[in-house]
Amino acid sequence: MNMGQQRIGLSRRGFLVGTGGALLAFAAACSSSDGDGSGSEPSGPVIAHKYGETQVPTDPQRIVSVGYNDQDAILALGGTLAGTFDWYGDYPYGVWPWAQDLLGDAQPEIVGTASTNIDFEKVAAVAPDLVVGTYSGLTQAQYDKLSAIAPTVAQPADFADYGVPWQDQTRILGDALGKKDKAAELVSSVETQFDDVRAANPAFAGKTVLVGALKGPGQFGVYGPEDPKVRFFTELGFVNPPVTEQITGNFAEISTEQLSLANVDLLVWYAGGGYGDKLRAELDKTPIYQELDVVKAGRTITLEDAAAEAMAWSTVLSLPYALNEIPPRVAPLLA
């Protein structure tokens, strides 16, 4: 997901130079020379991804997550985190409350943040036996640097960057960790919860939904079909309006005039990260927005609390919380 659009001011840039030769020597010592897991470590499954295929070691014990939310699925599967990516939230080790209990005694190193991106030296320093980044926008260059340190599983090729569905993410990581059955159980459990909520809210079925966000002063954007927040609603029975078919990534900026395209059955504003007040201020001074039928009918909702973040993360650990909190708020709008 282009999370720089989701959260104003976030950037993703990383660089590996610094200790150069020392880092490469360290990487060679803790991994095979080609990073495909084919050295002295027992051979595990082969995982396909955007940049090819990676043979991972059997039963990896030191896993580094460079994906924005991969840590949740890793912990849910019983994996041990040696390093993790701190997306946002100021929580210990980059792990949110819904996953903290699963950390146990582990104290993973923060190997990257949304503002600084991946620190390759820190990745190497924790001597991982597996690096994963399924919910990410890893470039070929970043992947090459990581795979020189340890076998690396990048984002899948079948979806947009930051667009892997939570089910696929869980299954991919389940395969990588040798926990295929556990992954299937986790996916089935959450899908059952979606089924139950959908059955309890038949009014959701077939209603069009658009999920938007504030991009900057006087600037708005909408999320595309592959964004997890949009998928959250379509899995509840909502459908995407035709306008989203024009979005090639998972987020597109729209002009103030294009807000007229937001006349849908339900308009959702994502305002996580404390942007709720800024969003409301911008909308209040945008006359064209006030004239939308969906606004006049009161079928808009702004999500900005922990439930919104659980929806944005969209993992097997966060989704149950979002399912408990968000549908009861939406249902009265469509009554």
Automatic annotation (TrEMBL):
Residues making up the signal peptide according to the UniProt record: 1-27
Sequence ranges assigned to domain Fe/B12 periplasmic-binding in this UniProt record: 62-334
GO CC annotation, single: outer membrane-bounded periplasmic space
Subcellular location: Cell envelope
Main location: other
SUPFAM superfamilies hit by this protein: Helical backbone' metal receptor (SSF53807)
GO biological process: iron coordination entity transport
Stated family: Belongs to the bacterial solute-binding protein 8 family.
Protein name per Swiss-Prot or TrEMBL: Iron-siderophore ABC transporter substrate-binding protein
Species assigned in the record: Rhodococcus opacus (Nocardia opaca)
